[in-house]
Amino acid sequence: QAFFCLLFCIPWGSSCPPSCQCTEQAGAKTVLCSSQHLEEIPKDIPRDVVFLKLDANSITRIPSNAFRHLSHLEEIDLSRNAIEKIDRAAFKGLAAGLRSLDLSSNRIRSIPKEALLALNAKLRLANNPWHCECALQEMLREARPDLDSVQDITCHTAPREEYVGKPLLQVLDAGANFCSVHQRSMDVAVFVTMFGWFAMLVVYVVCYVRHNREDSCRHRDYRRALPSAQARAE
């Protein structure tokens, strides 16, 4: 009975992930998992955590709903990992309270705009190999991060060589619009597709007309041959 009492009476939020340290000060719980060689986000983070430090690990991906049940979170430090992929619903459930999200010094090339739409947190995005394209431009426009966050983004790769190595803000201020290039490419693709369908329609019509004409000629020759055949029969 004592065992079952301990099992069910201790709140789940009081546990601490292995290799991490959990501290509490002024009612705010902090979970420290820095430099623990973690390859993924721990599953058993206390629900009442306020400050979560996962920096200097080997995390490569932030999956959907990774922090969904951590409604008290105000700061997340994911810097100095090996993050390459961030799922669309990675930060679902963190809309209101989150004040700081540090994603600096990772391997992030792009982030789905849906991942950051509801966040009002201050983003730290420096030292990532960003690919400056329409997806990144749309993400920044939709997520509306603060100016400091955008200033930290440098184009590691880009559609045009002249943009590589330059801050994204400088490129955009110079008049670049990656989405207009994307739109032109889409327009060209649509035009080529429509032209292909039109060409197939023309070929079909030509073949159809030619086939009908040949059938008409055969039918006309057949009718011309009928009287002579009847005459020979008489």
Automatic annotation (TrEMBL):
Matching entries from Gene3D superfamilies are given as: Ribonuclease Inhibitor
Keyword Transmembrane helix tagged: yes
**SMART domains documented for this protein:** LRR_TYP, LRRNT
Record's bilayer topology term: Single-pass membrane protein
What are the TM regions of this chain, as residue ranges?
Answer: 188-209
GO CC terms of this entry = plasma membrane
- Identify the stretch annotated as signal peptide in this record: 1-15
UniProt-listed Pfam families? LRR_8, LRRNT
Q: Where in the cell is it found?
A: Membrane
The protein here is known as Leucine-rich repeat-containing protein 3
Organism name? Elachura formosa
